[in-house]
């Protein structure tokens, strides 16, 4: 396996794939894709398309990618009873969906290039496929949100995505759209496992906004499992989560 990391979208992006003749070129292609996504969807770049959309760019001039992502955001809002909402203070910020969507697209790009064993991570959210260099499912550690250097659970996954929403790295950045002045304070970390990082990421964001009840929301969704740590340090997990624990 080779492992490469670049800082893109303001976070480390890591790729692990088998060492082949085309491995370096394949990694470069994936990193280029993430940079293109950042250029289009970063709300921190004045010239990005999303910034121009927020500044009043005519919808007729929106790219197909922009239309798709905003449509997916609206679908997710409906699927989460409004807990996933990209509009705050009149501005659109689809980053709660874009990261998982981009990782999933990068994974699909690797599959298109014939790579069937890989690990793609962006800012702690991961898509796995196949096996690691030992020929085993990928081992992923869930960090203790109160002590980042400590792993509280290790899970084995293959062909699954893992996303974590929490306050222990970026501070309080997820808000409850129903009570925008009252961010969720009863939960500090929520990890979601799903068949794709796209679903794991978007539903982790919405469930975190729900507070402690978010784990019950995840438990009712098909093919998703979750592990929540609340502000008292108590962990709660879905019925099928233990199947992934190493």
Rg, alpha carbons: 18 Å
Helix content range: 25-40%
SSE order, one letter for each helix or strand: EEHHHEEHEEEEEEHHEE
Strand content: 25-35%
The major pleated sheet works out as: 8 strands, antiparallel
Shape: globular
* CATH class term: Alpha Beta
**Based on DSSP secondary structure assignment, what is the total number of beta strands?**
12
Structural class based on helices, strands and sheet pairing: alpha+beta
> Quick check: average pLDDT?
93
Low-pLDDT segments: 170-175
CATH architecture: Roll
Keywords:
246 residues; alpha+beta; T-fold; two-stranded antiparallel ribbon; 6 helices; globular
List the helices and strands and how they pair.
Layout: E1 2-8, E2 11-17, H1 23-41, H2 49-54, H3 64-79, E3 87-88, E4 91-92, H4 95-112, E5 118-122, E6 125-129, E7 138-144, E8 147-157, E9 161-166, E10 187-194, H5 197-209, H6 214-220, E11 225-230, E12 235-237
Antiparallel strand pairs: 1-2, 2-5, 3-4, 5-6, 6-9, 7-8, 9-10, 10-11, 11-12
Helix pairs in contact: 1-4, 4-5, 5-6
